[in-house]
Amino acid sequence: MADVPDSARADRDAHRFSASLGDLATRYGLDATAVWRLGTLGALLVCDRLAPTTVRDPVRVRDDHLADALVALDLPQLRSARQIADLGAGAGVPGLPLAVALPGARVTLIEANGRKCAFMARAVELMALKNAEIVQARAEAWTLGLGQNDLVTARALAGLDVVAEYAAPLLKIGGVVVVWKGRRELAAEADAVRAAAVLGLRVHEPLQVMPYGAAEHRYLHVMSKIEETPTRFPRRVGVARKRPLGGA
Q: What's residue 8's pLDDT?
């Protein structure tokens, strides 16, 4: 029997994966096209050997990647955003699921690693996703994004204070940065408060979320931009991690 063409195989796997997304579709009001696109991404994360993730079990991909990304839709600031930047986008999570759920928003996925960018570009093509753009760059070096974004997202990227420094120059006044984190760390949160004071951000109380039934210790950390970030930011590539603003 002849091999199934790659596009046909991808479409078949997408429909199989889509069947497991009914709860997410209901919770977030996703239409059939959105569910198919999420299914395409989920199937790639499970089956594509080039997918930059160690999570391959379909249930865990659905829960730890797709559901965990979409839980940010509980934030009204995200629902209203029209220009979104996802920093350290990696395998495309949370940026690609959010682009699917928010067709009226433009989502730019910023990633320095070329292999990861290639995977995301393939996913965008197979998902027929028109509102997502892949940019290979470090967050500090993406000058085209300065002051342009309503919302910046980051998941598994860096400490809160470092993410704040990456995000603040990219935000418009009134914009917000949303950071996915697990168990709360009070010292790290204090570091973020110190960094925010320098960057023109205000830190909000972390929001505990339940992306799926068995989830534990899931929090969204939100910081809003209340004044202009000083022009000395962003600092040179790598400096934010070496000399974080939140450090004592």
A: 72
- In this predicted structure, the answer to whether residue 4 has a pLDDT above a threshold of 60 is no
Rounded Cα distance between 180 and 182, Å, is: 7
Six token digits for residue 140: 């500090």
Which structural domains are found in the chain, ordered by start? Answer: 65-242 (3.40.50.150)
- Percent of all residues in the chain with a pLDDT value above 70, rounded to a whole number: 96
What pLDDT does 189 receive?
97
Instruction: Tally the C-alpha atoms within 13 A of residue 4's C-alpha that lie toward its C-beta.
Output: 8
Which residues neighbour 101 within 8 Å (Cβ) at sequence distance 6 or greater?
28, 30, 34, 70, 73
Is the pLDDT assigned to residue 14 strictly greater than 90?
A: no
CA 72/CA 79 separation, integer angstroms? 9
Burial per residue of 203-236, b for 16 or more beta-carbon CB atoms within 10 angstroms, e otherwise: beebeeeebbeebeebbbbbbbbeeebeeebbee
Query: Strands 132-136 and 207-208, how do they pair?
Result: unpaired
Structure tokens at 138: 């470090």
Give 99-150 as a DSSP string: HHH-TTSEEEEEES-HHHHHHHHHHHHHHT-SSEEEEES-GGG-GGGTT-EE
Question: Of the candidates 98, 81, 80, which has an alpha carbon nearest to the alpha carbon of residue 89?
Answer: 98
Nearest to 180 by CA among 119, 123, 98, 105: 98
Which pTM was predicted?
A: 0.93
The predicted model gives 38-56 an average pLDDT of: 94
